[in-house]
Amino acid sequence: MNIEDVKKELNEYVGKNPDIVAKAFYNAEVVLNKHCKTITAVKGKFPSFYSIIGHVIQPFAPAWNEIGEASFKHKMLQNHRMKVNFPILADEVLNTWLADLYIEGKKAEEHPVSKHIMDDLLAKVVDDIDILSQTGNTSSTDAFLKSCNGVSRAVSVGLANTSHPMFKIPLTAITTANILDQIKKYEKSLPKATRKKVKKLYMSTNLALEFQDQYEQTYGTKVTYTDGDAFRTPLSKLEIVPLDHIADNVIFSTVEGNLVRLIDVFDKPEVTDIQKQDYKLKIFMDGHLGYDFLINELVYVAVFDGSVKGLNNANLNTLLYPGENLTVAQQG
Asked: Which residues make Cβ contacts (< 8 Å) with residue 253, sequence separation at least 6?
C-alpha cells in the first residue's frame, strides 16, 4: 500500500462509519460522562433560566394577601469548539499495522489499516476528553487545556461568582488523620432542604483512596462491613466518585441532574477532511463540548480558607435554605 491507498481507505472507512468520532467524544469511558445529564446547546451557547421561590402557602382567608418571594435567575452555559489535527506518516503506520496482523494472526481484510488508524486515534481522543472534562480551562495558557472548560473550572468560577454563588462548606485542610472526620463534617453541613437529593461526592482519586484506606482501618472489623462501604460516606452513604485529574483540594457535590455535559445539537463531532501532503496524511476533525452546572446555588463545595458556610448572600440564603441559620461574611 502507498499513501494514496491509505488515504482512499481512510475516506471510505470514515464514510461508512460517520458516528465514530461522536462516539469517542461522548464515550462512557470518560468518567464524568457517567454522572452528567446531557444538554444540547445550539452553536456553543445554552441559556439556563430558573427561579428560586420562597414559601407560598398560607392560612385561608377570603381576601388577597400576597406571599412568596421570588428570585429569577439567568445563567449562560457554554460549550466550546475543539479540533484534532493529526498527522500520519504512512510508512510508520503500515509497519505497526503489519506487525499487529502478524502477532494476531489476522488477514488484512479482517483488520484494515483504516480501522487500525482510527481505533488508535479515537482511543487517544477519549483519553484527552477524560482529562479535559475535569481540568479543561479556556483561560489556560496551555493549548491542550484551553480546548474547553471542565468541572474544576466550573467550580472555581462558581466559587468566585457573586450573582450565582455556590454553597460553601468550610473544612480543615485534609490529612490522613482527619479525613474521616472532615468528610463527616461535610455531610453534616449539607443543607437540610436538599440533603436527600444529593447522591454523590466528587473528589480526587488520591483523596478517595486515602478515605477508603482510613475507612477500612476504622470500620473494617464491624460485622456489617462490606467492601462497598468504603466507597460511600459514613453518614449519608453518598457514592464517592474519584476523579483522576482534579486537584486534591477540590471536593464537591450537587443535586442529581445539575451537573451537565453540553453537546451541540447540530454540529456533531466528525472527521471534516483527510489531506495528503508529501509523505504525510493529515486528519481533521472537530466538535463541541463543555461541562457546567445548571444552577450554581445547588452546588456544595468544600473550602479551606475560613469562608463562612452558605451562599454568602443573605437573600439567597433565606430563599433557598431558610432553616440553616446562615450568616454572611462581614466586609472590611
From this structure: 190, 198, 200, 201, 202, 238, 299, 300
Which residues, listed in sequence order, are joined to residue 277 by a DSSP beta bridge?
280
For residue 31, give the nearest of 229, 180, 246, 302 by alpha carbon: 246
The model's pTM: 0.85
Condensed to tens digits (0 to 9), the pLDDT of residues 279-317 reads: 788 999 998 899 999 889 999 999 999 899 999 999 888
Interstrand relation of 37-41 and 252-254 (parallel, antiparallel or unpaired): unpaired
**Phi, psi of 161, rounded to the nearest 5 degrees:** -85, 120
| Per-residue pLDDT tens digits for 25-37 | 899 889 999 999 8
Q: Is 331 exposed, middle or buried (0-12, 13-18, 19+ CB in 10 A)?
A: exposed
What percent of the chain is modeled with pLDDT above 90?
50
3-class SS letters over the chain:
CCHHHHHHHHHHHHHHCCCHHHHHHCCCCCHHHHHCEEEEEECCEEEEEEEEECCCCCCCCCCCCCCCCEEEEEEEEECEEEEEEEEEEHHHHHHHHHHHHHHHCCCHHHCCHHHHHHHHHHHHHHHHHHHHHHHCCCCCCCCCHHHCCCHHHHHHHHHHCCCCCCEEEECCCCCCCCHHHHHHHHHHHCCCCCHHHECEEEEEHHHHHHHHHHHHHHHCCCCCCCHHHHHECCCCCCEEEEECCCCCCCCEEEECCCEEEEEECCCCCEEEEEEEECCEEEEEEEEEEEEEECCHHHEEEEECCCCCCECCCHHHHHHHCCCCCCCCCCCC
Q: How far is CA 53 from CA 56, 191, 295, in A?
A: 8, 16, 14
